[in-house]
Amino acid sequence: MSTKLDALIIGGGFGGVDSLIRLRKAGFKAKIVEASPILGGTWSLNRYPGARVDSPIPLYCLDHEEIWEDFTWSEVYPGWKGIRHFFNHADKKMQISKDAYFNTRVSKATWNEKSKTWHVEAMGKDGKLTFEANFLISCLGFASAPMNPFEGAETFKGQIFHTGNWDESVAPADLTGKRIGVIGTGASGVQVAQELGKVASEFKLFQRTPNLCLPMGQAQLTPEAQVAFKAVYADILEKRRHTFAGFHYDFDTTTDWRKQTPEQREAFFEKIWAKRGFTYWLGTYQDVYFNEEINREAYNFWQRKVAERVTDPKKRELLAPKEPFHTFGTRRPSLEQDYYEVLNDARTEIIDVRSDPIVRIVEKGVQLKSGRVVELDVLVCATGFDTHSGVYRKIDITGVKGQKLADKWSLQNGVSSNLGMTIRGFPNLFYLYGAQAPTAYSNGPSTIDIQAKWLTQTMEHMREKGITSFDVTPEAEKAWCDRVEELSAKSLFHASQGWYMGRNVKGKKAQPLNYTGGIPAYIKDLEECAAQGYKGFILSH
Questions:
Q1: What gap in Å lies between CA 294 and CA 489, rounded to an integer?
Q2: Which of 264, 299, 333 is the last residue of a domain?
Q3: H-run or E-run covering 336
Q4: Which of 311, 312, 384, 454 has a 20 to 30 A CA-CA distance from 45?
């Protein structure tokens, strides 16, 4: 017998937990299905050495005062264990687990046009489960489909890991004295390199493109210091809604860099650099992401700052080249603590796979095009994800007239939506923190909070008006895709060769996967849609 619900939520991370809390408060019966044994979403899998957030507290938390009012963080930028501790606290305060199915993976979801419900099949530890839900809410995140693009992983005789699904029983100390290699220099590559580079007898970093890392500014927090800080939590969390990326700072839109002297611009860059975190990325001149001249100045400043920390000339040119491979900030920078010092160590070699590409993984390590085999005891694949759409091709989601979401969002077709939350042909389906929303251009919980509020408001409106289902009009879906494309095309982000545009996956359609208008503009779009009677939606009674 199927469990009947108002809403079934797939995923127990920030999106799933926030949605459940808001739907409960609105009087809806909802449940979470979570593949992991615990809450946390990506933080139940991102447990590699050094894994931590890149947003300072309290920005990276649920905006529910009853949760954060008596929770104490230990660091400004919490590690994965700190985030898990936060979820455990949220669970105790809100009793999330009583409405969650753990170790349960959704395999199939089918829209029933006659009953206006989703029929969902899942496999749990005790067997098959079925649900009938008026609404299906996907909180799978945008980076849930790990990639390993290299052949031969199964032949490697040492230990091999992917940062997207690390064996948490393996700590850095367990790898002490081993020859360790890390493939990739994205966020997880930077973080894991910082930790494993310190314990390895030999450390090899396989780098294609240098990460334009920024100094984190990590600090420990005492409970006493947080008592006073709690008084401004609400104000800080509210400010998330009024800045481009959902942080407590924003671009400088008042200063005209063209009217400044070179010395004044240098002083401006020094000022925002000193603030640490993403301020140098997201608190800079707004024109940095629209004008190549000031973007190059921003890069040059960054290059000088990093070059000061790398004494080896060869490594310096690899890590902070004088000629950039891409415009500054249009591929996501990572926050680092001692990344450059670790790589500057004599035990570390940076292997430039742009000039000598990886051919395959072999029994003893990694084989390069030159014929060299880099021998290793431990190999870490920080090779990224098929973002935004990859995870949706792994679940059999069937909409109107038998249409498969995996087909609609295939590599060749790309993604399409309305408001970055709903998809034509898939009625009563919401997805959070995914394609064509601010997502990867934002602090995650900032976007999730906005979307969870809006979907709850929409469901309340439908209940009040006796509306049983919604679908997206073809005109609205096209208009949203056009809007996302036009916003991106005005910026330097549009030429990015990385995953922002889907160019990290062979055969994937190149398109802007994120909404480039910023959070305030996104909120305005959502509010205008609701105020206009949900224009762009087909509402059925």
A1: 18
A2: 333
A3: strand 335-336
A4: 454
